[in-house]
């Protein structure tokens, strides 16, 4: 099976009726927010998306994906490559009331004025959420200064308690 470029927007209701399965990619160069958050990005994000109708009659958009990006280590400020893996499950909602009625295992996704979902934005949002809160190398791979202390702090020297003087006043 060949790797095809995915559509930017898609009608989730028609796709779910057809039980559409999309296996393809998005160019990362079109994801401006991801470009701003990373030092550099690979060429594409590989995505697998499945449209279906669940047992409650709700449209489900589920899928997985991966992309390779370069992030800045927050310890040593050198770049390092990170694989971002995503796994998502959405259900389209026409308004906030319908979104509140969705089961907790679905996230709501907004439809545009044409009743379609922007699939590229959905994937970009999920990739942004997959970036670690504090990106950093593994400790053994990090080029941080040798005088930096990571992990356990040095033991304090035995200092006299400054409040011992107050005990003598009793």
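Q: What amino acid sequence fits the structure above?
A:
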């Amino acid at each position: 099976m060949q790797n095809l470029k995915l559509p930017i927007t898609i009608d989730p209701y028609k796709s779910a009726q057809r039980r559409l399965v999309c296996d393809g990619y998005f160019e990362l160069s079109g994801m401006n927010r991801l470009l701003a958050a990373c030092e550099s990005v690979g060429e594409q994000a590989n995505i697998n998306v499945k449209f279906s109708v669940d047992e409650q009659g709700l449209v489900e958009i589920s899928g997985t994906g991966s992309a390779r990006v370069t992030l800045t280590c927050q310890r040593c400020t050198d770049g390092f490559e990170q694989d971002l893996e995503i796994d998502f499950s959405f259900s389209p909602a026409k308004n906030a009331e319908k979104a509140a009625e969705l089961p907790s295992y679905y996230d709501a996704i907004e439809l545009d004025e044409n009743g379609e979902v922007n699939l590229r934005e959905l994937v970009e949002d999920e990739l942004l959420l997959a970036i670690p809160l504090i990106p950093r190398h593994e400790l053994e791979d990090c080029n941080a200064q040798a005088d930096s202390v990571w992990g356990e702090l040095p033991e304090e020297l035995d200092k006299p308690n400054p409040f011992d003087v107050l005990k003598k006043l009793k």
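Q: And what stands out in the fold?
A: The first helix runs from residue 12 to 17.
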